[in-house]
Amino acid sequence: PTLDITTTKLDTNKYKLTAVAKDSDWTIVKYEFLNWSTLLNASNSSYIDLTIKTDTTIIVNVYDDKWAKTSKSVVLIYNNLPPTLEVTVTTLSTNKYRIYANAKDVDWTIAKYEYFNWTTLLNTTNVTYIDLTVTKDTTITVNVYDNKWAKVTKFVNFTYTNIAPVLNVKVDYLATNKYKLTATATDSDGTIAKYEFLNWSWTLLNSNNASFIELIVTKDTTITVNAIDDKWLKTTKYVTFKYTNLYPTLPVATVKTWDNNY
């Protein structure tokens, strides 16, 4: 018989192979499609649909009714499909996130996950998610690879949110209208850079290290206490003092007596 093979591409790595055979003196009785020694067509059809996962050579045999055989081969080149990747982010708390890589590969399997902060690899094991705490604006690169090392990449941007200091103010009574104010501040994502104590707009203390003042009030007074972190985020508290009027004191009179002698 004479034989021609037509190849129709149905999709990436998916083909239809059709054997076009003629026999000038008899008829075609059998078609065979083989991947090396493996028979691909279970029925005696003149075409097959084929999905390949590697470079593949298909052998096509046709027989006439006298069992004369003609063979031809077709080489199909495999095109590796990269994985698909979707990245989802869950907020765990302020500046803390969980990043998930949802990857699929239609023709192979996912072999590797990578999470980078610029050039720094964040995951030491091959996991599908990481927990991340950001201390500044950050871009995370997520890579996934299939087992043919086709790679797909996505980027996730995070905006850092500065957390305000926590401030407590302690007041100690020293004497009537005299007090000691102590500011105690902590910062979960930085350091305390500065303390301020103000009587309205009048600055009583502006210091990088001192955190207390002693105060004598001469009228009802509100003191403003500020704690400022190293990114200049400020927390403020107010303390109000009521002036206690003191009674005046009088000098004690000294009475002097004389003896009168007549």
Account of the 3D structure:
The structure is a single chain. With about 260 residues, the chain is an all-beta fold. Helices cover about 0% and strands about 60% of the residues. The chain has no helices and 21 strands. It has strands at about 1-10, 15-20, 30-35, 40, 45-50, 55-65, 70-75, 85-95, 95-105, 110-115, 120, 130-135, 140-145, 150-160, 165-175, 180-185, 190-200, 200-205, 210-215, 220-230, 235-240. It has a four-stranded antiparallel beta sheet, with no helix packed on it. Strands 11-10-13-14 form a four-stranded antiparallel beta sheet, with no helix packed on it.
Briefly say what this structure is:
With 262 residues, this protein is mostly beta strands.
* Structure classification: mainly beta
The radius of gyration over CA amounts to 44 Å
The beta-strand count equals 21
**Span from first to last CA?**
175 Å
Percent strand equals over 45%
Question: Could you tell me the mean pLDDT?
Answer: 92
Shape: rod-shaped
* Secondary-structure element pattern, one letter each: EEEEEEEEEEEEEEEEEEEEE
Fraction of residues in helix: under 10%
Largest sheet, order of strands side by side?
4-3-6-7
Number of helices: 0
Low-pLDDT sequence parts: none
Q: Main beta sheet, described? A: 4 strands, antiparallel
List keywords for this structure.
60% strand; 262 residues
Chain-wise SSE layout:
Blueprint (H helix, E strand, L loop, with lengths): L1 E10 L2 E9 L5 E8 L2 E2 L7 E5 L4 E9 L4 E8 L7 E10 L2 E9 L5 E8 L2 E2 L7 E5 L4 E9 L4 E8 L7 E10 L2 E9 L5 E8 L2 E6 L4 E5 L4 E9 L4 E8 L21
Antiparallel strand pairs: 1-2, 2-5, 3-4, 3-6, 6-7, 8-9, 9-12, 10-11, 10-13, 13-14, 15-16, 16-19, 17-18, 17-20, 20-21
